[in-house]
Specification:
- There is one protein chain.
- The protein is of the alpha/beta class and 339 residues long.
- Helices cover 63% and strands 7% of the residues.
- It has 2 domains: 191 residues, no CATH class; 132 residues, no CATH class.
- The protein has a 5-stranded parallel sheet with strand order 3-2-4-1-5, sandwiched between helices.
- The chain is globular, with a radius of gyration of 21 Å.
- The mean pLDDT is 95.
């Protein structure tokens, strides 16, 4: 059996991928301010990724889920409702279909990469990206627009202009880190690498599994675990100090990654429930992360030998590191190596 294979390529020549585990910054509420991320942004700027991936659904995944409403209606309502509504409004403003918007965005994006896009063209690009479900890339293009370009949208759909501004200033890490860093680096698009095509498995078993887990105190034990206490304390100290970089160092440390691997995944193998549904849940989580790893590898495929940054919830980092470490032309980079 093949256990390992040494690829005929130097480590220094491989495509570099940094999985940045993050807390969900929206949970900070009124405590959030962009300056909390200044030090982290500077560190990531030094890494200088050629492509940035964020934990949002790729357009092709949304389209596939829309084509199977009997399986994914609930998941789309939970994970893509706002994205679908923004796309609908953008299509109405432009008078195009999703596929037309996707084609127009592709051509305009090629112009943007070459550097020959007018403000009018950039607004069209932002709207077509939005219409094609590429929200983060749309917001990035909006951020490049001069005020006169933004004012043009206000005459078409003032509410949509307000949505662009709200997302640009959102604490959600896809925007507060992903879009912000992409703008600093002059990138023209952002890759979406999340996946929810596993959710039909969970929704089938949730009504039976969750009461069983509740009876044995499964979720309570994790919430009250030492690693979660340390995480909360690390976040509190970092916010008080006005700098989240030490917190990100902790959340991407070997100590934290190993502990979260145990708490989020390995722990499902301990209860030995009669139904064995805890093992179905583990398999479902593995499917999601395998799909995410596939999207990451797809995004990195167009950047061989270059650098990719992926911003995800910290619970994804253990499995994504594990899966991507098996790729023949991927070298994992960790935040601690940049500090």
């Amino acid at each position: 059996m093949l256990k390992s294979y040494k690829a005929p390529i130097e480590e220094s020549e491989k495509t570099q991928v940094l999985i940045l585990g993050s807390g969900h910054l929206g949970n900070l509420g009124q405590q959030f301010r962009p300056a909390l991320l200044d030090s982290l942004i500077e560190v990531l700027r030094g890494y200088s990724p050629d492509v940035i991936g964020v934990e949002s659904l790729p357009s092709q995944v949304i389209v596939g889920m829309e084509a199977a409403p009997e399986k994914y209606r609930q998941a789309l309502e939970i994970f893509a409702k706002d994205r679908l509504e923004l796309a609908r409004r953008a299509r109405e403003a432009l008078g195009v279909s999703r596929t037309e918007a996707e084609g127009r965005a592709k051509g305009l994006l090629e112009q943007a990469v070459r550097g020959g896009l007018s403000p009018e063209g950039r607004l069209d690009l932002a709207l077509n990206l939005l219409a094609a479900y590429e929200v983060e890339s749309a917001v990035l293009q909006w951020s490049y627009l001069p005020e006169v370009g933004q004012e043009r949208l206000s005459t078409m759909d003032g509410g949509l202009a307000g949505q662009f501004d709200a997302l640009l200033n959102s604490p959600v890490e896809s925007f507060s880190i992903g879009v912000r860093l992409a703008r600093v680096l002059g990138l023209q698009s952002i890759a979406c690498i999340d996946d929810q095509q596993d959710t039909d498995i969970y929704f089938e078993i949730a009504d039976r599994l969750e009461p069983e887990l509740e009876r044995i105190g499964y979720h309570t034990a994790i919430r009250e675990s030492e690693i979660i206490r340390k995480q909360q304390e690390s976040s509190r100290r970092a916010v008080e100090a006005g700098d989240l970089l030490p917190h990100y160092r902790f959340m991407n440390s070997p100590e934290y990654v190993h502990a979260i691997m145990d708490a989020e995944y390995i722990s499902y193998l301990r209860p030995k429930l009669p139904s064995r549904l805890e093992r179905t849940r583990l398999a479902q989580l593995e499917v999601r992360n395998l799909n995410m790893a596939s999207h990451i590898r797809r995004a990195s495929a167009r950047h061989p030998g270059q650098r990719m940054l992926v911003i995800v919830g910290a619970s994804h980092k253990p499995l994504l590191d594990l899966y991507l470490s098996q790729m023949l032309d991927v070298k994992l980079v960790h935040l601690g190596e940049l500090l």
